[in-house]
Amino acid sequence: MSIYTKNGDEGFTRRIDGESISKCDPRIEAVGAVDELNSNIGLCACIARQAEQDAQAELLGKFQEELFVIGTHLTTSGTAYAAGVTQTVPQKSIAAMEEQIDEIWAQLGPLKSFILPGGCELACHLHVARTLCRRAERAVAAMQQRDGKVSPVILRYLNRLSDLLFALARQANVVAGLSDVEWHKTQASV
After folding, report:
1. pLDDT one-digit tens code per residue, 74-124
2. What's the predicted TM-score (pTM) here?
3. What are phi and psi of 14, to 5 degrees?
4. H helices then E strands: how many in the chain?
5. Pairing mode, if any, of strands 181-182 and 115-116?
6. Per residue in 44-54, is it b (16+ CB within 10 Å) or e — as a string?
7. Where are the domains of the chain?
8. Phi, psi values for residue 24, rounded to 5°
9. CA distance 95 to 10
10. Residue 119 near residue 172, CB atoms below 8 Å
11. Residue of 66, 37, 33 whose CA lies nearest to 140
12. What is the CATH number of domain 17-182?
């Protein structure tokens, strides 16, 4: 079987149930945004391993597994295949992320100013992942608003994951011996 099917040459794709759907449909936007996030988190995990931050790499790998489940849910939602997708992201994953955020925040201390995405390479990539997570969250919210078939736990998961990615970026800078890049208000003329 060839990697290319030519099915998408006209701006449409086929859902798992065979229905043709526009590539700009909110469902496809949501699935694509989650896939983009997952790919970027894979890059973050690779950089974490290279930086010998194995615990963080392992945690990021766990997120990839959960995001794959979310993508499957989004892909099959509203189809006859949805009943076959029994695995969902458990509420306990969200609770675990909250605990991790609290632990990291206790180590880092509160923010005293806004920070800019920056610092070490891993922190920079984690900030990109955070922004991609917010984009995925918006895309899933649009899909939810349109057809109401998205599990509410997915939006909570993405919201919390974004927060945790922010905390992990700050933590990566500390491990690298760097400070947060603080934003300093400037007198810019607009």
Report:
1. 887 766 555 555 566 777 899 999 999 999 999 998 888 888 899 999 999
2. 0.88
3. -105, 135
4. 5, 4
5. antiparallel
6. bbebbbebebe
7. 17-182
8. -105, 10
9. 43
10. yes
11. 33
12. 1.20.1200.10
